[in-house]
Design a protein that fits this description.
By secondary structure, the protein is α/β, with parallel strands linked by helices. The protein has ten helices and eleven strands. The two termini are about 60 Å apart.
Amino acid sequence: MAAPSDPQLNNKYMEYVVALAQHQTVSAAAEAMFISQPAMSHFIRSLENRLGVKLFNRVRNRYIPTYEGERYLFYARRIIALETQMRNEFAEIRVAGHGQIRLALPTLRSAYILPSLVPAYRRLYPNVKLVTLEAHSQVLEKMLLSGEADFAILNSPAKNSDTTSLFIRRDEILLAVPPDHPQIAGSQRRPDSPFDTIDIRLFREDGFILQYPDQRTRQTADHILQDVGIVPHVVIQTRSIESALKMVSQGVGICFAPETYIRQLDLCPPPRCFSLGSPHSVYDLSLAYLKNTYLPVYFQDFIQVVKQSL
């Protein structure tokens, strides 16, 4: 029987040493490991030669571990136990669907993404733990590349070539104005959309409720305003789009908000929302993950649930 090239790191060798320590005779250890006595003796001698230590003293016909042998056994038993634990866990994952998914997503989108995504996925995999990592848009891809997250929901396709991006849906940043705003009369019907269009220049003199500069919605708003030469009068800044929309309903000012977010809110009175027809206001929501990584079945099914639920 050919010996493996690195017996000191080979689990089968470790099992031979454990067997010999347990049975104390070559014949009994060989029988337990289903190999011949000469093969067992050869493996032990070969391992001792490679390690440069003696693992067993032979007392009459019995093999007693030396101090070095005891230390080898200490680590060998731990490694064998860990491998057994690993194999058992993999078997459990295959049979019972256990596992974990770490999902990074924009903080402001979690309020409407998670309530539809989590129940749908848990119906398929109740034993898979979903860990959500909420952060600002610009750091989500970094979390994916660093290994902190398995998946990331992004406001645009991932830029790094080491990632794969799957299109989920198109989203639009809309202009929300108070329901009784006089400029509403200047809107135009758009047959291909539930939202009328309006020229944002009609609101040049209005107060704006904006997000902070590090937020994607604010960055989109800045592009839209710069394109038409508006320097906004900022009434207040808030990270919460929900708070901004509620203030719009109360006549505090006007704001920008994603279409998918607006659809989830039940405001009274609801603000009027308009499409701006700007190329900056439309972007593709995507699901990203690292290329060339193993995707177990419950990862693959997660991708499908994300597509369907969003």
